[in-house]
Sequence to fold (567 residues):
Amino acid sequence: MAQCDHGEENQSSLCSSGDILANLHSYFGNPHLVNSLVSHILTTETSEQLPSLEAEDSGSHDETSDPMNQLDNGSSCTDTSSALTHMWSFGKMLSVAKLFSAPRLDEDVSSLSLCDEDETAEGERKDDEKEELRISFQSKYIQIVPLYQDYCLQEVKRGVHRLDKTFLSELISPQYVQGLHSRLSPFLSAEATSSPSRLPEVALSSPPPQPIRVTPCTLWHDLDEVKASGLLDRLTPKEIRLQESMFELISSEASYLRSLGVAVDHFYASKTLKQTLPQMEHHILFSNIRHVRAASEKFLMDLEIRLGECVLISQVGDIVLQHGPEFHKLYVPYVTNMMYQEALVNQLLQQNRDFVYSLKRLESDPVCQRQNLKSFLVLPFQRITRIKLLLENILKLTQPDCDSVPNVEKAKEAVHEIAADCDKGVRKMKQIEELVYLEMLLDFGKVKSVPLVVSERFLVHQGPVRQLTLEGTYNSRPSFVSVYLHLFNDLLIISLKRDQRFIVMDHTVFPTHVRIEHLKTEVLSLPPESFLLHLLHSRTGHPTAMILVTNTKADKETWMKLLSSTQ
Fold:
């Protein structure tokens, strides 16, 4: 990798940015994805230079200034690198990374990776619109379907009712229901803090507070087919509860599908909303929610086919297992993308007047039932966790020797694996963001640079320490220089912190070339927080050692434990 001249700041910036671009291409292995990321960094940089929203004509778009067009027309790598370096110099890395990092998805269209959206363009949009029109499944057994947000609210009330019936009437009074309702989604509170005062000209008057009318979910014993069968007289209370629990998987999926329909048909398909956003931001905002809805429809159809075969439901675990692979393929990238959704929505609420105006209009429509966009975007995450709870309850009510138990157990584990992989995907993307952010801040100068964004690498610990130095003659007093350590799972970097950048002094492979040693600090008249760090292979190619001093005894114990660990 090219080395940068520490004395030439501009050249160093270009070099480091170019290296970062190369590393991103190497990591993601997808030029379309990297170009998309870079183009939106350029877009964000341009918006940072604008003095205010009032000076911006959001309705006009000059194709020659479109970053995507500039890339397509072969704009120089130097311009891109300069823009990258300029962005990070303003400390905007975290916000940009959250918006424009993307999971490494399969090339299959169902995963809807960013490059898929770019390559298919308008042709895929037309196909998707046709696909959305074809989704017209109507439940045969469930005629009254609440939004999934209301279904979740009912579950909260049922749980409280089971804990203490005496407080139920007080809890479900209008003011308390509204309070509970606002806590169901982690996204709901963000709207109140989205700085509405910054956009007073587009703020719409909110309707007066009204009590939330929750539509009741259909229960198994309320079905006409169940009443006519006489099963309620023959089954035990526990067997009826089992049927209710399995039927809840069906009724709640119908509720979930209805809410997904609002998200897709009302918000995603809104031409007015689309006109306020670049294509890439529209994709980040809604991710693969259309395909999530299609999967939900197929799942509900199979569940109702099972109910139609016999009103006494035999099992549902096998159906969950059958749809598990499709759920995994769709839910993992969607949930991974959720933190970028939230960051993008918050940014748009603060910076895009047209988006705010259009969104308020859409949210005020009766079809939303006073729910905002964020409550719809979080639905897939809520649903995958709810399915796991429903399967656990079904398993608890099923006789241990029943033939359906193995399928329920396998289904529960499959859904648990989906949730675990969602969590793993979110952690991985945060690690990538951290690496990209740090690489922009590291200045290797004349030290041979190393690519930081490498697969499987992540930051373990970082922090300031002091290095003991001896100046002048033998009798001179020791002094301390502040240095900064970045410890990764396979690399140790030692640097000097200058403002917001880190001037790299040395780096070595960890843990292969790193050793530590306790010091007899009292004998050596050293601070008690001192320890010896050995680098078996330094930037000079020879072993070196340094005495480091931490700020506290706890810091010393932490660093010594981490630096002495082996993988």
Observations:
- The mean pLDDT is 74.
- The radius of gyration is 29 Å.
